Amino acid sequence: MTALTASAVPDLLRALTLLRPADDAGKAAIARLCGIEVTLLAAPEPVKPPPPPSPSIDPPKPPIVPPAERTTPPVSTSSEGTTSNKVEEVPSVLVPDYTESRQVPDWLETIEPFPEADGFIAIQAPEPLLVPQWARGILAASVATFSEAGTLDVERLVRGIARGILWRSIPRRLWPTLARGALVLVDRSDALLPFAADQEQILEQICAVVGRDGVQVLDFEGNPAWGAGTGSQDEWEDFERWRPPAGTPVLALTDLGIGSGYGIRPVHPAMWRAFADRLRRAGCPFVAFVPYAPERWPEDLGPALHILPWDRGTSARTVRRTLGKALRLPGGSRS
């Protein structure tokens, strides 16, 4: 073997980097030119996979142990009487139990199976809180306000003439009207989740009664004074931003905080009383539909808030008994 010079290895590395031979024979030839003798080893022969088993030979079947011959393997104990930790081999063959305790009972032969269903089984939706045949009349009576659009008020006209009053307009009788539209406040708190479908039904029905252009819908959570809006809760603003014009009735679909608690932000009745007073000063009558019995309604909410039961027992007569023929504007018109 010839002695290697100091530059043999660096020269070989530089030549391999520049020339980049494709196989080991080329690398060995470059090494010999640099004075390094390289011996190539023969490539190992590839290992041939074993031949597949003949399909004519069936694999051995495990023996079937009859139920009578099955026994629990004994637990070996040591000379001191303690149980040994040695793991015993468990048989891997599962044998069905055909004893009398596992037989099919006789009464099963007398039971008729359920009929096969044709396609999917339709699940009936729960009944709405308001009777559908009465809903239009209930909502119309809930947001109607008095307006001097009725017939000529002859008695009032004669009394004015007798007193020498100079009429600037012809007096007419007060008449319920939906011309002022409505503002609907929908409580989206977790306590009202069971009534979400009813809220959507009422929104559709009130738009059909009043007219979609005359209805404004705002969402809130807990109390509108905390914020209300039409989009995401992050975009809600102070209610003063959405306050309707004077004379517009406000209808709230809420529980007035009855269901608050258990992780839900509590709403004190004084908050609703203060909110109702704000609407009264703005000239807007306020009505709330509450899905709980009157026994659970908060007390001392003040005269500015009218509460109607939101259940199947409510009718247009119930609304008229609570509100009269129509809502009176705060500071009010006389009937």
Q: What is the radius of gyration?
A: 45 Å
SSE succession: HHHEHEEHEEEHEEH
What level of helicity do the residues show?
10-25%
And the CATH topology of the domain at 132-323? Rossmann fold
Second CATH tier, the architecture of the domain at 132-323: 3-Layer(aba) Sandwich
**CATH top level class name of the domain at 132-323:** Alpha Beta
Low-confidence stretches: none
Kindly state the number of beta strands.
8
Largest sheet: 6 strands, mixed
SS-derived structural category: alpha/beta
Task: Categorize the overall geometry.
Answer: elongated
Straight-line N-to-C gap: 128 Å
Strand percentage, roughly? 5-15%
Arithmetic mean of pLDDT? 82
Please tally the helical runs, counting DSSP H or I stretches of 4 or more residues.
Answer: 7
Structure description:
There is one protein chain. With 335 residues, this protein is an alpha/beta fold. Among the domains are: 7-40, no CATH class; 132-323, Rossmann fold (3-Layer(aba) Sandwich), CATH 3.40.50. 24% of the residues lie in helices and 10% in strands. The chain has helices at residues 8-19, 24-33, 132-143, 154-162, 196-210, 269-281, 316-323; strands at 145-147, 175-177, 182-187, 215-220, 228-229, 250-253, 286-290, 305-309. Strand 4 (215-220) and strand 5 (228-229) form a beta hairpin. Helix 3 (132-143) packs parallel to helix 7. It is elongated, with a radius of gyration of 45 Å.
